[in-house]
Model the fold of this input.
Amino acid sequence: MKDNNIKFIQGNEACVEGAIYAGIDFFAGYPITPSTEIMEHLAYRLPQKGGKFIQMEDEIASMGAIIGASLTGNKVMTATSGPGFSLKQEALGYACMAEIPCVIANVQRGGPSTGNPTHVSQGDVNQVRWGTHGDHAIIALTASNHQDVFKITVEAFNMAETYRTPVVILLDEVIGHMREKLVIPKPGEIPVVARLRTSVKKGVDYHPYLPREDGRLPMSDFGAAHKYNVTGLFHDMWGFPNNDPRVVSELLRHLVDKIENNVNEINMYKEYWLDDAEYILISYGSSARSAIHLAKNRRARGIKIGVLELQTLWPFPSEMVREKCVNAKSVIVVEMNMGQIITQVKNAVDNPRNVFLANRIDGELISPTDIKSILRMIQGKGV
Done:
């Protein structure tokens, strides 16, 4: 019998299915390799579910469109790659300041600039965190297989609604374009967070930026029952510009604390053979597939090696990383850049001198053999 819940699809399509499961209402985007399939499949899938799709003239307009659609009560998403993600930064900062829920998928390719459009990279990790100016916090999720791509996409929408913030899905070209099995969970199997709307009645004073006791900010659909101001300037609880030092300080702390103080709730990861691991590979995205393969192979030869696969890159789970690595002789960070997550790992662990980098930056997927050469070097030095 044909099971419509079992699919053999690309990672980009798995992201689309996760967005549909999460209840996406609106997508605006512009085609760019290697994320284009997300846009193409949502152009087909969204109308089937009663949602709206629009191709915009560029990446800046795409970000503006989803911000506007989110304010009117919709779950929204856009998708891009490196050059387009660069163009989105100003509007991304606006969404952080105005606390507008939205999801941005960035399928990474080689850079900077036009770079290597059809080959893999993980070079946008720090841009996600620091790309837009000013003090702020951000959530960025990633995955190494299609089942997890589906799950983190659902969680990206959930976190966007829970914390009223932009959330970045940080995939890479290998994950986006490879094909493997995906089982679509049954409705309700993965919880879906709905938009929290205000209970304040029409005609009653509504404070769009006054948190409840649990820290969440109920929203009112813009243009509906309540009139309120939306701005990228520092603002008070009514949304009007305000440069009073106390107001500015409290707002900035709120924007950062609502995410950084919930690291444990936001943190997602997977671990393999860590209980007795003397060597730990820390990785994410497609790089983690090679790390897991190598660890399994070395385990069979008696080497006590384990893998910590990060699925939450930002906010960086420093405490968890330190706890998992406390008994390791050495830690090897496996990534396809010049060392972006390794800096965070070194800051987290007790002995940063025992943290090493296994990487590739040439557009090719890092292989188990690449990692093995670093492991042998470490073992040869007795580290």
